């Protein structure tokens, strides 16, 4: 039990050091500054809002996302696609919807065995399932189970995304689901003002311990999932 507490304390200290570093940087800058903190439960849209702000406030004419960042999003997008089709297949059982072809059920079982993201085999299975009448019926009832809002967009664009070379577009990046852990910071510039946007992830109980480290933010934006 003591080891568990020690690990949690180390994680909290690390996150507090990250926040303290942000505050020190703000004090060191001579430019007018504003700090925006994004709060909300998981899947409330905090990371999406942050990405939208990045796209609207491209700094010094530089690309919104670097080549390295786009490469990182490529894997995230692939994982999103596989995870969402698995959710649809699971909902087929829950909602008692039959597959439109005898091969559909077998393809769904094979997809469960894919463990390496959007492989060529996963692409083949998802493309086949995407055309199944039962899967389409299940998608029409997506309000009855958990499915990312962007799932249909990525299924529609699977051929492009699975081609080589694939570089995620701004729209792809905006719509992909990224789970935030700890504190993520993005620095924006607008009319000579420095804007620091902080996306606070993690469990709600932990956030209460982190937030006192932020000294009077200029704005706090609280987001809520529309489905909850």
TrEMBL record:
Q: Does the keyword Acetylation apply?
A: no
- Pfam families per UniProt: G-alpha
Mind listing the GO biological process terms from this record?
A: adenylate cyclase-modulating G protein-coupled receptor signaling pathway
Q: Which UniProt keywords apply?
A: GTP-binding, Magnesium, Metal-binding, Nucleotide-binding, Transducer
Instruction: Output the InterPro entries linked to this UniProt entry.
Output: Gprotein_alpha_su, GproteinA_insert, P-loop_NTPase
- Identify a single GO molecular function assigned to this protein: G protein-coupled receptor binding
Superkingdom field: Eukaryota
Q: Which GO terms describe its cellular component?
A: cytoplasm; heterotrimeric G-protein complex
Question: Binding of GTP: at which residues?
Answer: 149-150, 174-180, 199-203
Keyword field contains Magnesium:
yes
* Stored PROSITE patterns: G_ALPHA
Residues noted as binding Mg(2+) in the record, renumbered to the chain = 47, 180
Task: Please give the name of this protein.
Answer: Uncharacterized protein
Q: Which organism is this entry from?
A: Synchytrium endobioticum
